[in-house]
Amino acid sequence: MSLFRSTDIGLDLGTSSTLAYVRGKGLVLREATAIAVERGSGKLVAIGAQAKEMLGREPDSLVVVQPLKEGVIANFDATERLLSHFFTQIAGSRVLFKPRVAIAVPSGATEVEMRAVIETSEGAGARYTYLVFEPMAAAIGAGLDVFAPEGRLVLDIGAGTSDLVVICLGKAVASSSVRVGGDSFDRAIVRYFKRQHGIAIGTRAAEELKIRYGSAYPRKEELPIQVVGRSLGGGMPLSLSLGSNELTYALAEPLAAIVDQIKDLLEQTPPELCGDLTKHGICLSGGSAQLFGLDKYISEQTGVVSFVAEDPAACVAIGAGKVLEDIKRYEGVLYDYRRGDYYED
User: What pLDDT is recorded for position 79?
Assistant: First the structure.
C-alpha cells in the first residue's frame, strides 16, 4: 500500500524562510519565502533564494514579494503560488495522491488567519491541512517530551514573531506571542546606524551584519566590521570601520521586548510548574535563536537557564512532520476545524 500513500509534509511557513520535513526522508526543503513576478503579466520569474537575491535590486519590470508579514499571510496569491511550487518540488504533480500537510502558525494567530493558511494550502494542492502552533511544534522537533507531567518552557524566535509556551501533559498551559523577531533585529540595526552614525543601510545589509557579527551579549574580543551605506548628510557612499559590539547596542530594544515577554509569561505560570521550568530551563528555537550569546543573555536577564536546541531553525518543521507521523498521539496539539475527519494510512 505504500506505493499509493500520499506524501506527508511538515511545513514551517515562515516570514523569511520555509522549511519542510517529509516522513521517512527528514528535512527536504530549506528555502527563502519570496517570489518574483513580472509586473503587469504576473508571470513567475523566480522563487525562493533566487527571488530574495533580487529584493531591493529588482528593475521596474519585476515585483519581488515576501508574502508573509510577522508570521501570517499578507499576500494570498503569492503564498499559494509559492506553496504550489514547493508541494510539486517535494511530492511531484500526482493528482490522485496530493500531500497531507501540517503547517506551523504563530500561537497568537487569529482564527481568520489560521483559516487563511488552510485555504491557501489546499488551494496550492494539499489534500488536507492541519495546523500546529509554532512553539509546540518546536518543542516536539527539539526532542522534548511534551507529554511529561512536568512543565517545559519553549521560546521560538522566528523572523516575524517570538512565540513562547509552557507545556505540560501535552497541552499549552500558558502561551504568548509578540511580533518581534529576526526582522525586528534587522530594522533595529538600520535605525541604529541612521541615528548614531548618520548612515543609511538596507535591510539586506543589516541582516548580513546580524548573522556574521550580531551578538546579544558583548564579545570579549570584538570583531572588526566594515559598514558601507549612504551618508544621510551628503547622500554620497560612506564606509565606516567599527567594532562588532556596536551591534549589541543596536539590538538592545528588540531583545528587551523578548525578555519582557518571558517575564510576563512566567508571572502567568501556575506556581506548581515554576520549579519544573527552573529545573529544565528555557529551550530556544527558531532561526533567530542562533544569535551569538542569546542563551547567556536570557539566562542573565530572567534568572532561568536557557539553552539552544540542536538545529534550532529546523525544529518547527521537524516537529510539524513528526505530528503527522503519529497523528493519533498528537491529536491534542492540532488545530483542525474539521476535527475527527482524518485520513488513515
Answer: 94
